[in-house]
Amino acid sequence: MPLACLALAFLPGGDWPQFRGPGTNGVVPAAPLPRSWSESENVAWKIAVPGHGWSQPVVVGDTLYLTTALGEGSPRPLTYQAGVDAPDTSKDPVGAQEIDWRVIAYELASGKPRWQASVVRGPAKFPIHPSNTHAPETPAADARGVYAYFGSTGTVVALDTAGQERWRVELGAYPTRDAFGTGSSPVLHQGLLFVQVFSEERAFLVALDTADGKERWRVERGLGTAWNTPVLWNTGTRVELVASGKKHLAGYDPASGKELWSLVGIDTPDSSSPAWDAERLYFGFRGPGVNGPLYALKAGASGALAPPAGKRALVGEAWQTALSAPGMPSPVSVNGQVYVLASGFLSCFDAKTGIPRYKERLDGSGVVVASPIAVGDELVIVGESGKGFLVAATPHFELRGGGELDEVLWATPTVAGGALFLRGIEHLYCLRAKAGG
Hints:
This protein has helices at residues 3-9, 80-85; strands at 27-28, 36-37, 43-48, 58-60, 63-70, 99-107, 113-122, 140-142, 145-150, 155-160, 165-170, 187-189, 192-198, 203-209, 215-220, 231-234, 239-245, 248-252, 259-264, 275-276, 280-283, 286-287, 290-291, 294-298, 303-304, 317-321, 332-334, 337-342, 345-350, 356-361, 373-375, 378-382, 387-392, 399-404, 414-416, 419-423, 427-431. The chain is mainly β.
């Protein structure tokens, strides 16, 4: 994307066209967010969403798009801990109950449904974790309409602004590690839709033409499940498509799929996506019993970046800070700081040096799965418990506001049209500040 076009995408109150916003990094200009909210405070509208999904709402113009899965084969997801404690069903046969995978369009101002499109109907091909859903992937949208990817079926579909199908592509559905299900969202850039399919049987990154769905390029990868989403790293001199999976992080030329650099052989993130700013890319791996470093990679990398024998530093590394990797939420870089969520704590690091600034518990958040977003000089963070936080994007911890809803919140927040949108387990909320509040 030309830099001028990228700047236009970040206009205050503008669109939120894909996972983690216009830049895929969760950073947008300031907006008049409410200082507090609840079920009865600063709620412009609240609507029940049919079915279930952990996908983030996306917004283009006056339309909000959302994906969901409903039917007997798509039960209400459990909370994280309840899902962990549930009996292991990964070896159970998949039932024949039908699921209806849908895309829904809503009027942004009122929440009134405009249309619903049933994209796929049938039983699930593989089991999922009790805490996951069959619609975890956030759609992407542009002036032509919306692009949805359902990893449970392997279907990519393009719908126009009236909900009519323009094209569809079947990429195949594959088993995931620990039968957790899928989670990687599609990404839009300059007429291409990028879809990451990293599973236990197949692993590839593919670029589809948004005009007709034709495949423009494909990159095969080593096997291993990843639930994160690629990012478009804009360094000011070039845009790279960065994808991370099992012990393999790489940057690609979005137009051709040519690999620009790769990091192979060390633990790289499979649930969180990297954070980025023009100078550096930030990432790390945290898993059961593993808490790796938070790495910062300098812009302009090329070739193989794995540490030389006997060394810890990556080729092209800016810094690394031990035992500081993100959990499931993706980190965010804004105002010269990098913010990381893990185990109920928010940590802040100097973006240039990696020096820790603070580590503070977010009381009452419960498990945090949703990625934080930066809106101007504030972070918006929501926990599974339904509690949300507005935190100053500064080197010192400052809680500036927040609220609580009677919902389980896993979906990443969306900001568009001067409002904050939160998708819960049952409802979609539009939160808007009233005069003075």
